Amino acid sequence: MKKAEGISGYIIVKADTNSEWDFCEYAIVEITQKWKETIQARLTLLEQFKNDQSFNQISYWEQPIGFFKTADEGDEFYTGIDEIFAEYDDWAFITIDEKELETLAKPENKLAAHQVVISWDGTIQYKAYGKHTGEEFYTHDFAIAEILEAVGKTNNELVTNQH
């Protein structure tokens, strides 16, 4: 996995957990045509609430490819995500292949109840909960408009996700 030189079909988003014993540093979201259409439709639905001062957010049952933790440097599964994110960025386009996705280290918790939360300001956040612990795993909020603008092209025009 590495930072894409341009637009790709995957983003990596900084993530965290409230667990005292488990770890989670990032999530990966696949940016497909269906994903773009679904997110755009949901943002359109939010238009009806733009004058409602009480509106905060809306959530849907949806999950990213997964929540992951970094392996230790030197470990064969070390991801080096610190090199992917610029100092103040919460997300970035990445290149990764299916085989590499299978090798990424996951939190110890079995995650369930995956959600995507869209806030009044157009930011989104993915969340999941430990099935037996209730501990929360969540991405940092990120502005979806930036991603939709960047991927305004069809997915056929996106950078291929080759390692």
How many domains would you count in the coordinates?
A: 1
* Range of helix content: 10-25%
Low-confidence stretches are: 153-163
Give the N-to-C terminal Cα separation. Answer: 7 Å
Number of strands: 10
For the residues shown, what is the average pLDDT?
Answer: 85
The arrangement of helices and strands along the chain is EEEHEEEHEEEEH
Largest sheet: 10 strands, antiparallel
Strand content: 25-35%
Q: From the alpha carbons, calculate the radius of gyration and give it in angstroms.
A: 16 Å
Description:
This protein has 163 residues and is α+β, with helices and mostly antiparallel strands. The chain has one domain (2-154). 17% of the residues lie in helices and 31% in strands. The protein is built from three helices and ten strands. Strands 1, 2, 3, 4, 5, 6, 7, 8, 9 and 10 form a ten-stranded antiparallel sheet that branches. A hairpin with an 8-residue loop joins strand 2 and strand 3. The radius of gyration is 16 Å and the shape is globular.
Summarize the helices and strands and which ones pair or pack.
Elements (H helix, E strand, L loop, with lengths): L1 E2 L6 E8 L8 E5 L2 H14 L10 E5 L4 E3 L22 E5 L2 H6 L7 E9 L3 E8 L5 E4 L2 E2 H7 L13
Antiparallel strand pairs: 1-6, 2-3, 2-6, 2-9, 3-5, 4-7, 7-8, 8-9, 8-10
